[in-house]
Fold this sequence. Notes:
The complex is a heterodimer.
Chain A: H1 2-39, H2 46-67, H3 77-106, H4 110-132, E1 145-147, H5 149-156, E2 164-165, H6 166-188, H7 190-200, H8 202-207, H9 212-237, H10 242-258, H11 264-282, H12 286-292, H13 311-325
Antiparallel strand pairs in A: 1-2
Helix pairs in contact in A: 1-6, 1-9, 1-10, 1-11, 1-12, 2-3, 2-4, 2-9, 2-10, 3-4, 3-9, 6-7, 6-9, 7-9, 10-11, 10-13, 11-13
Chain B: H1 2-5, H2 8-34, H3 42-57, H4 62-92, H5 97-127, H6 145-165, H7 170-190, H8 192-195, H9 211-215, H10 218-227, H11 229-234, H12 238-281, H13 283-293, H14 295-300, H15 305-331, H16 341-355, H17 360-388, H18 397-404, H19 409-424
Helix pairs in contact in B: 2-12, 2-15, 2-16, 2-17, 3-6, 3-7, 3-15, 4-5, 6-15, 10-12, 12-13, 16-17, 16-19, 17-19
Amino acid sequence: xxxVNAIILLLNYIFIPALTYxxxxxxxxxxxxxxYGILRFANFATGDMMSFGTMxxxxxxxxxxxxxxxxxxxxxxxxxxxFGIIFMILYMLLIxxxxxxxxxxxxxxxxxxxxxxxxxxxxxxAVVRIIIGPGDRRFFDGEKFIIKAREFKEMTxxxxxxxxxxxxxxxxxxxxxxxxxxxxxxxxxxTGKSMKAYSDNEDLALLSGIDPKKIVLVTWVIxxxxxxxxxxLYGLDKSFKPFTYFNNMLPIFAxxxxxxxxxxxxxxxxxxxxxxxxxxxxxxxxxxxxxxxxESMEPNSLVQLLSTDYKFAVSFSILVxxxxxxxSGIFKGKVL
Amino acid sequence: xxxxxxxxxxxxxxxxxxLISAVMxxxxxxxxxxxxxxxxxxxxxxxxxxxxxxxxxxxPVQEAWRAGGFDILMSLWLIVVMVLVIRFILKRFEKSKxxxxxxxxxxxxxxxxxxxxxxxxxxxxxxxxxxxxGFLGGFGLPIIFSWIVGALFAGGLAFxxxxxxxxxxxxxxxxxxLLISEIVIAIIKxxxxxxxxxxxxxxxxxxxxxxxxxxxxxxxxxxxxKFNAGKLSVIENLADRQAALxxxxxxxxxxxxxxxxxxxxxxxxxxxxxxxQKALYSPWGRMMRAIRDNEEAAxxxxxxxxxxxxxxxxxxxxxxxxxxxxLVTQDGLFTPGSYRPMRxxxxxxxxxxxxxxxxxxxxxxxxxxxWFLWIEAAPISLFLINFFTAGIPETNALKAHLIESVPYFRxxxxxxxxxxxxxxxxxxxxxxxxxxx
Lengths: 336, 437
């Protein structure tokens, strides 16, 4: 019985939160990787673009709420996400037209692109803050829990409760659907394959009659979908705050590079690698050992490898280690 | 201009921060402009410089040393031993899988060992009067020394980072340095025994006199009286005149203190400017440009590219470290929570790009212009909003919202500025000028 308790404990505090957080990171990381693979630059505006998409979603959520439209037990935001996506894509295309296009035609080095993306980052940050303000926003409505900790305890008679938030289930479910669709698109459709070809060798792709304008357009559309959904899911699960989104850029980068930048599947797994290692290394295992070990061996301290303050530092250290020993990432990068 | 519109006090504090920004920008400019190395870790070096200011100037906390000093020193020894063992293994054994794994095992077990041995010491130190101290304190030396020590700290970190990350491609290097600086900040924020963490260190010593002391010093009061003789003589009543004089003395004292800082900072800026200009036109500067423009060719000419990259990485970071120590010196407090990449990394980069990379005067100009705009963006945009919406009543929701969000227009201004400069003047306001004699 103690053993089951221990498993439930780990599920509740490590596995499910890490899976949720990992999914949110994974969506962002695929976004980074796509931009890197096809447009060939590290996009420092990632976090802020995600916050822009989330902002659009929130505004539509408010609009729907004021109209009285709701999805019952599901959050209204799910209904607003498609509209948010449209705005996000429009914003991205606008920026591409006025900013990135020029440098693409100039064939500027990636560093210059990165600098330009910092300018975009500043502008996007300003736009988001001017429109919605820098404060913390919660836009979740509907049923909060699928299983409540207390109900679970009563149901099973265990000491440990398992709480399952609806946002966690939605996040994981949406991520699986979205990522499978994306891989289907990249591997099975003609456009997807031409994107791969373009990422692999630009000149060859151009020679074989692939239209670069179309590739860039499709990339931004996919990027907009990923950014908005990833951002909105994070906001639903936690809360929306522009500054947090800017900071999230760093673990997202870490995930993309750890997985091998330019490789969407790697980025997808990288998100989970980062999320799990952050949570595994900073979790206090005291209670777990209390269940598993006999009473005489119970630990006195918290049995925590690193204090939770170092959550971000963990993912960055992993990244640094990966960069030194395997700069191309766990899965070889730079092939879409 | 600000002096006339707002007050001399504000003008001077902006000027001082402009000088500090100029120093930071020079550091970044050396790395980017001379050598083409991209360093997004400026925040980390700034914070280390600030840490140096704390460690140098604060008086040691004797009690804390007694409580946990031994444990901390033991842990330091353990770290040194660990590094030596790793070096020994690296030198002694051939490269193999076993070697890599054993080094990893040593590092992991070493970290665990250090954690367990330092834990009681750290707890004891943090328990010593936590509201006031709760950390080891520093050496109690004049804070000016910290400018040099800050440079050493930052240079030391840059040495480690450079050894690890300099082989990476440019954009990877940017990300790696950015993340490493975040790690540095995380450590400074949460190792309370060393830095007091988010509890901040306040009331650091100053190299300049205190306002309160000045206000009671005779020569200073006379000085203020002399400067404002005309203004004072207009007032007939003696009591009124005394009150006016007191007011002026209070104002004058803070201006005077800021002037002292400006003087000190100017000296640093001028020294650095002379050194960097000399370096730029020296054979070494030529070599750096050669390496920047064509690494392979320079390598083929027998220049040690790796070594030179590391050297310039350390030098630039050390300059940033000086600026970090100067910043804390001026503020008189160390707040690890305030180090954010937006303000300390990306803004500095905007300065470098806008000013003109590779040109030291450009770097200084960038530091001044960008910092000035960063501070004055809010008043300017408030003025513009009021101007354009003059016909709209105060109660209009849009106008109220715009006025409320005035502080965020600075981001917009910076972003647009950066984008326009990148597009239409990619070499900055003052482009790099190399005269070949």
